[in-house]
């Protein structure tokens, strides 16, 4: 019954706390959900509105580039037909999208404005004097893109309309001739207006200068400043805030960038009372359902407790009877829970004893001793013998040798598998070696030495029969583990204290796989005495390489290298490695003498030695050498080719200067002079200078004409004809495109005291 009482009490407490938290958090949670949802809707609407504004911006800029409009805006005279044609084009631009309210074309030279509504107007009498004043004021003219303002419409009793104005200057700084497009702000903000249906909801859009682009309600400066202080620029989110003259409101804000030119902040405010109006009803309904659930849960708890109590009592009785049978004569506590606790403590003590025994397992101790035995120096044979007895190692104290099984391509294996997997692999290798060699009458011990190898301490004398058994172990490792190994068998141990030295010699012996290859069996006693001299590249071979390098003849260089490498195959590892390094340094010296720039870091001494070690075998070294030499020769040839192209470009530029006044000067004339095909020369010049030949000739001729305009009072036409331009129309078009003014305006401006630009 205690169990039932505690269980029911705990459930009652949990249910009470849960109800209190639910009742307290309901409004807050629902408000957060509404805030997050409103933020998502506002962000989408803001992005879509920004895209509409970006479309209008791109459309205005593309429309303003119309050649007819540009020529009309910069002309000092025009005909009625030209005016009608311009007005027709403005009407086409306005009708392209219902969001466009009106389009103007302002001509500062004639002080006229062509309007899509009224046609041709005198600038002084034009109904939109606000835009004329903005264009004439240098301060406001700098902010000529996305200007929010109120426009009084003509012919409608000066009815105002909110618009966003886009201005495109044709001669900024020289005149106010410009293309003006007014976008209907209410039409543009349709997506924001339909964003939600909350009553008393308001939407405001501010630009990065805190100007009101759009507002569904009338706001004064203080209200705008209050909204800006709560809505962070460049961010989106929502918060509750208390305006000075209103109740608490939920403010949702989002930001959008218009082509990186201007940032708009979209702010939506909703009264909190509107959002939470129906939540109170929901909470009261939840309260009723909660109490119904509480009563049902209490009933179920009582029924379950009755069903559970009896089985638990029976379980306790069985445990007590079993414990008394195992330990007769021992008393027990009258409290059932205390009794079960005593049983649990006794079982835990037994588990701790078993765990301690496992930690002291002789296998782990023996493995640790053998690893130290091979990897470190022991002081005396007596110390080693005592350790043999302590760990139960059954090996003779003389005539021992060491064999090492080393994993091939271990660097690739270690990049793929973790240390845990590598440890499991070495454990499996040790088991395979133990199983394959223990059938022999000779005794042995396998040792996991870490990294890439497993050592075997052997008592077998040198024989071909036992060497074949080592080869069988290699084959079984590859068969079961898919890992190739190189095995090395060292010399016989004279005494136990020399075991570390023999182990190190045998490990160095595995390096001989460099000449014998992977999966080899290397026996110290069967290796012939190695020559001690290093290989040096003969003088005649150096001469062959020196003659082949200027020609970029990689085949000759590679043939000399292959011949030299073939003579190194019979050398021991150390002499072979040092000879390879010496060969590389000789080739590097010869390449450096015939290269105009330093060789890459891959030819450094440290890099070369590291790569030779990583290749592991001579078979892997040869293709690596060939690839490195071939790539370096290709780079040298490419560098020489690049310098040749630079000389051709300089020669072409000199010819352009000499023949600048010749009307026939062209890409074909240049190509014939240089002895190249015209298509190849065009591509070469474009790739090297990032400029076409035609543009280069025009640039030089314009520079010559500008100097003549300032140095003499000669008419413009003779100067143009003497410069090589074949057409006056072509010259005037290019000149105005480059300098933004006519030649006469250029001469007048720079003779009035302005600094002559370096063209």
Automatic annotation (TrEMBL):
Ranges where the HTH araC/xylS-type domain occurs: 650-749
Recorded superkingdom: Bacteria
Transcription among keywords: yes
Keyword Membrane: yes
Pfam families (alphabetical): HTH_18
UniProt xrefs under InterPro entries: Homeodomain-like_sf, HTH_AraC, Tscrpt_reg_AraC-type_HTH
Keyword terms of this UniProt record: DNA-binding, Membrane, Transcription, Transcription regulation, Transmembrane, Transmembrane helix
Family matches, as SUPFAM superfamilies: Homeodomain-like
PROSITE patterns from the UniProt entry: HTH_ARAC_FAMILY_2
GO molecular function, one term: sequence-specific DNA binding
Membrane spanning residue stretches: 6-24, 287-305
The protein's name: AraC family transcriptional regulator
